[in-house]
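Hi everyone, sorry if this is the wrong subforum. Our group has a chain we'd like a structural model of before ordering constructs, and none of us has done structure prediction before. Sequence below.
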Amino acid sequence: MNEGVRKDDGAAAPEPIDGERIMKTVIIVDPDYAINDIGGMISGQGFMALVMTEARTALNSLRNEMPVDLVITELLLPDMDGMEFLRAIKMKAPNLPVLIVTMEHSIESYLQAMSAGAFDYLHKPARFADLCQCARYAVNRPGPGPVFVRAA
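Answer:
Right subforum, don't worry. Here is the predicted structure as tokens:
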């Protein structure tokens, strides 16, 4: 069974992001989004989730000069190698945090992703509370706010 995020894991879900703040935009790239529903769950926590199944679609969205606070991606993608996708994001937007949530459970992929600039790396099935905590930390970290990727 291919589980992506377990919502009912015994841990209380984090409180939603303060209603006074502008929603943070998260691009989620997961070919199994219908099964995992990461977008639906994270949207319920105060994020605006844009869910895509292909890396190239996400890269095109980044080129449209919209503000993006976080990318959450699987490494096992249908149209592009996940590490190549991570590197492409980091070339265009070095300050944009990328959270890897993947079925790939090797130390080699973890080390490659972290050295390529991933913000964090979670294995599927990831606990919902852990995913939300990582996402919140990524978008509220000190430093630049949302990243605007300029068209080339």
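For your construct planning: The first helix runs from residue 33 to 36. The beta strands are 5-6, 24-29, 47-52, 67-68, 70-73, 98-102, 120-123, 126-127, 147-148.
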